[in-house]
């Protein structure tokens, strides 16, 4: 809704998508008139709104850049963790220790029924 604030606990709670898709999501939030707030990321939007001319453009540009950097860092962290997980699984498989996820018999019964 216009004027509302979307608050995310951490930037990776917004999206783990690649940067282009994450930016699309953020732009969709902004297009609806809402503002995005993430603790730990400097929010210059109110200062930019109060400014005019070149200062406004610069502050908006810096705000967008900070958000892009944070989104990319969140994506990189996600990819690093997935890669380490894959390496751990490969190592466990080579040692004959990997068993995978335990089957959920209750869910399987519901699917079959």
Explained architecture:
The protein has one domain. It has four helices and two strands, in the order E-H-E-H-H-H. Strand 1, helix 1 and strand 2 form a beta-alpha-beta unit. It is elongated, with a radius of gyration of 21 Å. The model has no long low-confidence stretch (mean pLDDT 88).
Beta strand count = 2
Q: Any idea how many domains?
A: 1
Structural class assignment: mainly alpha
Q: For the residues shown, what is the average pLDDT?
A: 88
Proportion of residues in helical segments: 55-70%
The biggest sheet amounts to: 2 strands, parallel
* SS strand fraction: 5-15%
The spatial strand order of the largest sheet comes to 1-2
Distance between the termini: 42 Å
The whole-angstrom Rg is 21 Å
Poorly predicted spans = none
Quickly count the helices.
Answer: 4
Order of helices and strands: EHEHHH
Shape: elongated
């Amino acid at each position: 809704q216009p004027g509302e604030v979307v608050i995310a606990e951490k930037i990776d709670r917004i999206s783990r998508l690649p940067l282009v898709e994450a930016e699309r999501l953020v732009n969709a939030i902004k297009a609806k008139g809402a503002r995005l707030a993430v603790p730990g990321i400097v929010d210059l939007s109110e200062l930019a709104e109060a400014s005019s001319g070149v200062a406004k453009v610069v502050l908006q540009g810096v705000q967008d850049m900070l958000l892009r950097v944070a989104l990319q860092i969140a994506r990189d962290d996600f990819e690093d963790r997935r890669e380490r997980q894959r390496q751990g699984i490969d190592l466990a498989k080579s040692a004959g220790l990997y068993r995978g996820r335990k089957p959920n018999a209750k869910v399987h019964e519901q699917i079959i029924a």
